[in-house]
Design goal:
This protein is α/β, with parallel strands linked by helices and 344 residues long. It folds into two domains: 214 residues, 3-Layer(aba) Sandwich (Rossmann fold), CATH 3.40.50; 107 residues, Rossmann fold, CATH 3.40.50. Strands 1, 2, 3, 4, 5, 6, 7, 8, 9, 10, 11, 12 and 13 form a 13-stranded mixed sheet that branches. Helix 9 links the parallel strand 10 and strand 11.
Length: 344
């Protein structure tokens, strides 16, 4: 992998020039943003990989719903096998499948019970959500780089583990590194949320921390709530899985935090299957799971909330295996200050 990154270094200046030119065109108003008749909150990140956008979107949707806002969530639907505008949920009923809308927005629809939709054309999607679902507040998922739609609040979520990474390649721009934009782009964020997930707070190195100067900073973390049976929808306490030998299955960008959480519950994570992020499961993967489950004499299959959305479509094929997902919630260290900031 390091060799490949070295090979790709000559292409970094080309990518940097494209990013710089695009941002200059937006900043100088040559490329224009369009507004819609609703408050818009953008959630995004500055690097590829799992920084915690979806848990933050779920947190925001529930917070705003509790404040009696008519909130809707709009995503482009990364990895979906459809095009155009697709209404995922009206807040009560789910209309879409994971193939036609993507796993993250479907998880959001299940968790929040608010109108959700996908559209690669965000302006068109936002206007339809407003007119058809009567929302007055829209959360844009993964939209820090999507600058065509004007937003009232631009939230940038950064994973602590990424910020403190000692691997200098991680902080290179694509395609050699993991950065979608340089750290200087943090300047246009309304606020930065540093997500430590299941880790303890760490000091951000000075060479990175300098980019957060004069920015509004919040910190967040994950808390594990319990294990949920994806078939029966019954939630069990973390204690009930202590020492349990389960087959861990996941297909997320950064499995590290998931395994950290499972180990903190004292669950046996020796047996596992890791698939690529946004993996669409087919019968081939299901048979692979079945084979490893029985060969390892596992008690159950444990997976992520995002993977549970996809695996639940194979309940007949997995009817003889108990499958649970680890339910997690994103929490703010200073929730009152964040809530005040957001509502203001």
């Amino acid at each position: 992998m390091k060799i490949l990154r070295f090979i790709l270094i000559p292409f970094v200046p080309i990518f940097a020039l494209i990013v710089k030119l695009r941002n200059v065109l937006f900043d100088s108003k040559i490329l224009k943003t369009e507004s819609v008749k609703a408050n818009v909150i953008s959630v995004g990140n500055i690097n590829v990989g799992g920084s915690g956008k979806t848990p933050l979107v779920i947190y925001l949707a529930n917070l705003l719903k509790n404040e009696n806002k008519k909130v809707g969530v709009l995503s482009r639907g990364y990895g979906r096998k459809s095009k155009g505008y697709v209404l995922v949920s009206d807040g009560e009923k789910i209309f879409s499948t994971v193939e036609s809308c993507g796993d993250e927005i479907l998880l959001t629809a299940f968790e929040c019970n608010v109108p959700c939709a996908v559209s690669e054309k965000r302006i068109e999607g936002a206007e339809k959500l407003i007119s058809e679902q009567n929302v007055n507040t829209i959360i844009l998922d993964d939209a820090f780089q999507h600058r065509w739609l004007e937003r009232n609040v631009d939230l940038l979520v950064c994973e602590q583990k990424f910020l403190i990474s000692p691997d200098f390649f991680d902080h290179y721009l694509l395609p050699a590194g993991l950065m979608r934009e340089p750290f200087t782009s943090i300047e246009r964020a309304s606020a930065v949320i540093i997500n430590r997930k299941f880790s303890q707070p760490r000091n951000i190195p000075d060479n990175v921390n300098k980019y957060f100067a004069n920015k509004t900073i919040f910190t967040s973390y994950y808390t594990a709530k319990g294990f949920v049976d994806i078939k029966r929808k019954i939630e069990y306490s973390l204690r009930e899985f202590e020492g349990q030998k389960s087959l861990v299955v996941c297909g997320i960008a950064n499995p590290y935090s998931f395994f950290t959480a499972l180990r903190q519950t004292n669950m046996d994570t020796e047996n596992y299957l890791i698939f690529r992020d946004h993996k669409y499961y087919t019968n081939k993967e299901i048979q692979k799971i079945r084979k490893m489950f029985y060969s390892t004499n596992s008690h159950s299959v444990v997976t992520t909330q995002k993977d549970a959305v996809k695996l639940s479509e194979f309940q007949n094929e997995l009817d003889d295996i108990d499958i649970f997902y680890l339910k997690i919630d994103l929490m703010m260290d200073d929730e009152q200050s964040f809530k005040k900031f957001l509502l203001n």
